[in-house]
Design a protein that fits this description.
- The chain folds into two domains: 157 residues, Creatine Amidinohydrolase, Chain A, domain 1; 213 residues, Creatine Amidinohydrolase (Alpha-Beta Complex).
- Helix 4 runs parallel beside helix 6 and helix 10 packs antiparallel against helix 11.
- The chain has eleven helices and 18 strands.
- It has 388 residues and is α+β, with helices and mostly antiparallel strands.
């Protein structure tokens, strides 16, 4: 879970980027509420997809606003100074419009925001919420310490790129669960099994390793000589000798996610499949070798793509990788025309793939933490068409 120390440091980093005229901010994106307070609405609960708010004040005070059923889904207590929890369902009366509970909560803490000027995360709050606080919201853009601030949501996304130790800890837990799922895939992706059966085995292993119920999503599909490209959720397709089963999936724990891939040969891999694998593996290693803060994202793409071209294959047909954290994908995006530059604290994927007509498609991927001295690999699954 995110730590109290991490939440406080992320708030300090936010205030350092905001002009002194801003005395409070109102955050409505559930991911960003979690980012600054550790409070997360459980996505596997009856309150999934509901809303909450976080009011941060320049002096360091933090207030969580939510209805009573949203609040009870939290796995851990939030890192806040105050909670305004509005009864929405009491098992005694009919329910009202649930979103209106947050309007009531805002009125209850009016004394915290009405006499000073602030900003709202316009991308994350409803129009009704924005209307309540409109009288005290500064117009954008406002001049911050290093630039003109046009969007609070954009600023928060920029801050999210530099992962703090508690975030790396959560991501590492996601990686370990994903590693377990990949280990299970070698036994599950066998001739006669369906894609769905392989997925269920992978999901079970990942959740057991995670130690909690958590989403496991991604591509669990077979490719072959007749269909060299496939992606998405598993189907009832029965795996056949000669197929390549792509397991490209993420495990989400407390809002953070892993995302890495292996491709498994169903039966003995052919010489063509082995050559294709070796090209992808070496492309991954080449891209990995240039990962460093200050490196252009396009350079990482070029390093991987150059290996494929040298082996007589086309240039990499999709991104070489992307940032990872609370969304999928996040900046930086490793593509040929990317303007992104790698930062110390980025967590990224590298995932070269080849999709060859008459052979099949495959993709291999690791996850890395970018530092000033290179990159630390966070995923530890076995890359290969076979288990050994």
């Amino acid at each position: 879970m995110l730590t109290a120390e991490g939440c406080v440091e992320r708030r300090k980093n936010l205030w350092l980027r905001l002009p002194q005229s801003v005395e409070w901010v109102l955050i409505g994106d559930a991911r960003h509420v979690q980012y600054f307070s550790g409070f997360r609405i459980n996505p596997i609960s009856f309150s999934a997809d509901q809303r909450c708010l976080l009011l941060l004040q320049r002096g360091g005070h933090a207030t969580l606003l939510a209805d009573n059923f949203v609040r009870r889904t939290a796995v851990t207590d939030p890192v806040v100074d105050n909670e305004i929890i509005v009864p929405w369902y009491t098992h005694k009366k009919s329910v009202t419009n649930r979103d209106h509970a947050l309007l009531t909560a805002l009125e209850e803490c009016r004394h915290l925001w009405a006499t000073t000027n602030g900003l709202i995360e316009a991308e994350g709050v409803t129009q009704a919420v924005a209307a309540v606080v409109a009288e005290s919201v500064l117009p954008l853009p406002v001049s911050g310490p290093d630039q003109s601030l046009a969007s609070l949501g954009t600023l928060i996304r920029e801050l999210r790129r530099r992962k703090l130790p508690d975030e790396i800890g959560l991501l590492t837990r996601c990686m370990s669960a994903c590693d377990a799922g990949h280990a299970a895939a070698f036994k599950a992706a066998k001739q006669g099994a369906t894609e769905l059966e392989a997925y269920i085995a992978i999901q079970r292993a990942a959740q057991l390793a995670a130690g909690c119920a958590c989403p496991v999503y991604g591509d669990f599909r077979a490719t072959n000589a007749e269909a060299h490209k496939a992606g998405g959720l598993p189907t009832e397709y029965v795996l056949r000798d000669g197929d390549l089963f792509i397991a490209d999936f993420s495990v989400i724990i407390h809002g953070y996610r892993s995302d890495f891939t292996n491709t498994i040969a169903v039966g003995e891999p052919t010489d063509q499949q082995v050559r294709q694998f070796e090209a992808c593996r070496d492309a991954l290693l080449a891209a990995e070798s240039v990962l460093n803060s200050g490196v252009r994202a396009s350079e990482v793409y070029e390093a991987a793509s150059a290996v494929l071209l040298e082996r007589g294959y086309p240039a990499l047909a999709h991104h070489c990788g992307h940032g990872l954290g609370m969304e999928h994908p996040e900046p930086p995006i490793l593509v040929p025309e990317s303007d992104d530059v790698l930062l110390d604290g980025d967590v990224v994927t590298i995932e070269p793939g080849l999709y060859v007509e008459g052979v099949g498609g495959m993709r291999f991927e690791h996850n890395y933490a970018v530092t000033v001295s290179g990159a630390e690999r966070l995923s530890n699954h076995h890359i290969g068409l076979t288990e050994s």
